[in-house]
Amino acid sequence: MTDIKTMGQQLGRRSWAEPWKIKMVEPIHMTTAEERLRAMQESGYNTFLLKSDDVYIDLLPDSGTSAMSDRQWAGMMLGDEAYAGSRNFYHLEAAIQEYYGYRFIVPTHQGRGAENLISQAAIKKGQYVPGNMYFTTTRLHQELAGGIFTDIIIDEAHDSQSLHPFKGNVDLDKLRALIAKVGAAQIAYISLAGTVNMAGGQPVSMANVRELRALCDQHGIRIYLDATRMAENSFFIQEREEGYADKPIAAILKEFCSYTDGAWMSAKKDNLVNIGGWLALNHEDVFESARNLVVVYEGLHTYGGMAGRDMEAMAIGITESVQDDHMRARIGQVRYLGDLLTQWNIPIVQPVGGHAIFLDASRFYAHLPQSAFPGQTLAAELYLDSGVRAMERGVVSAGRDPQTGDHRYPRLELTRLTIPRRVYTQAHMDVVAESVKAVYDQRERSRGLEMIYEPQYLRFFQCRFKPL
Ligand code: F0G
User: Fold this and answer.
1) Of 102, 307, 311, 438, which sits with the fewest C-beta atoms within 10 Å of its C-beta?
2) Same domain as 290, residue 185
3) 69 touches ligand 1 (CB under 6 Å)
4) Residue in 204, 266, 397 to alter for ligand 1 test, most ligand atoms within 8 A of Cβ
5) Residue nearest to atom 11 of ligand 1 (CA)
6) pLDDT of residue 402
7) Which of 444, 335, 292 is nearest to 381 (CA)?
8) Average pLDDT of 265-289?
9) HSE-CB of 116 using CA atoms within 13 angstroms
10) Residue-range definition of the domain harbouring residue 452
């Protein structure tokens, strides 16, 4: 693992310090242990059901939680709130074309809106959708469109201790085997994600996407990219892949996208806005279907559920998100937290990825079976200890198999400390690390949880538990 000093030396600088200063602050409030216990009981031990007023440091997601820049706020004042043809849409379209390189753009209210459109437009019932590990909302939309998701990520991704530098890579042999078994015509498209979320924010290499492109060209299969954290992925290519050290993140991002046929985006992450998303495509046929579907599900094809001001803020956010200094500070902060925890021998997914520290709950609570929801238990214990809010990424998130109805037991049973962009300080990271350590020191006292309410879709958002 690259430590912070080595990273600084490699880049010829001393620190990952942020390339901005703070102009406006938002007070947060601290709670007592009794208040937290009451809040946790009322929330059914699910951190998604907490009120944010009861949270001290909020590491639930990095989604929609970024701090916008003064330029972005200035852009909000330039919102053209016309129903059709808002000028801000054309700014956004131009920014996506310039930095991601795709031809046709369909705006959506957030990432899952775009996932719905691409799934409806490009999957025929019964087709396979191979991907480098599932993501919750992505797979659900693929399944709702009649697709069958198939995991083709390399085995190392499922091992929290493998130090493979590109654990997000596609295993091309797994894809070849699937093509041989079902035939290329039965494959809707490849669902490729940058910095694979459920694997711990692990990147895909340029060599891998290039080889994937060549293989797909042989079989006439399209590749669609989940570009949600693709700017972060580009940082890892710059840092780890031969030939990219001197290339700017913006150039790496554009090259990567050039090997794919389109992308969907949750702009609430990399693009530094609080709401928004998009679908971008190179082929006119899919674009036409998606542009038609967007008026059914999202809004007109020049706003897709966003206000004009949101699109302006996003256009500016895109240009900021690909700045090398921004990304160095962003990932530097995540690593700072990871290094503290590693020094204290707390089990986390290695190497540290782009957007979060993933605590390895199955090793943290070695005495708990996966059926007692160790990842969920750890998120609850952290909140009870300090008011830090984390999220489960294990058996609860994985949901049930639609065919058998059984729990899906993923090999990775994790709790995610997700770092919002440009929001918290180094001192906040110290508090988080100290709280994780306090919970770790008392780990033997935890008994796990029992699920007492479970909704049909994406259960992790709304299910409830009680302590065992
Ligand atoms: N793809 C990835 C890789 C994501 O991480 C998310 C959201 C989406 C798609 C869906 O986008 O939320 O805008 O509808 N991830 C958040 C998370 C919620 O917590 O990781 P959305």
Assistant:
1) 438
2) yes
3) no
4) 266
5) 111
6) 86
7) 444
8) 98
9) 17
10) 4-62+324-467
CATH number of domain containing 451? 3.90.1150.10
Same-domain status, 128 and 28: no
pLDDT confidence tier of residue 1, bands split at 50, 70 and 90 = very low
Overall average pLDDT of the 265-283 stretch: 98
Report the chain's terminal Cα–Cα distance, integer Å: 37
Q: Does the annotation mark 150 as catalytic?
A: no
**Same-domain check for residues 306 and 394:** no
Residue 14 is predicted with a pLDDT of 72
Q: How far is the CA of 109 from the centre of ligand 1 (A)?
A: 12
pLDDT beyond 60 at 6: no
Report whether residue 276 contacts ligand 1, using a CB cutoff of 6 Å.
Answer: no
Ligand 1 and 193: CB distance under 6 A: yes
Catalytic residue among 112, 229, 269, 330: 269
- 94-149 residue pLDDT tens: 999 999 999 999 999 999 999 999 999 999 999 999 999 999 999 999 999 999 99
Checking if the pLDDT of 37 tops 70, the result is yes
Question: Residues for the chain: how many in total?
Answer: 468
Helical packing angle, 426-441 and 324-343, nearest 10°: 30
Helix axes 374-386, 33-42, angle to 10 degrees: 140
Query: Where a domain ends, among 301, 321, 341?
Result: 321
Number of Cβ within 10 Å of residue 388's Cβ equals: 25
In angstroms, what is the span from residue 9 Cα to ligand 1's centroid? 33
List CB contacts of 403: < 8 A, sequence separation 6 or more: none
Q: State which ligand 1 atom lies nearest to the alpha carbon of 277.
A: 13
What's the mean pLDDT in 166-195? 98
Query: How far, in Å, is the centroid of ligand 1 from the Cα of 196?
Result: 11
Average pLDDT over residues 171-196: 98
Instruction: Kindly state whether residues 164 and 304 are assigned to the same domain.
Output: yes
Number of domains forming the structure of the chain: 2
Examine the residue annotation and report whether 136 is marked as an active-site residue of this protein.
Answer: yes
pTM of the model as a whole: 0.95
Same domain, 154 and 78: yes
Q: Whose CA is nearest to atom 21 of ligand 1?
A: 111
Instruction: Report pLDDT for 11.
Output: 54
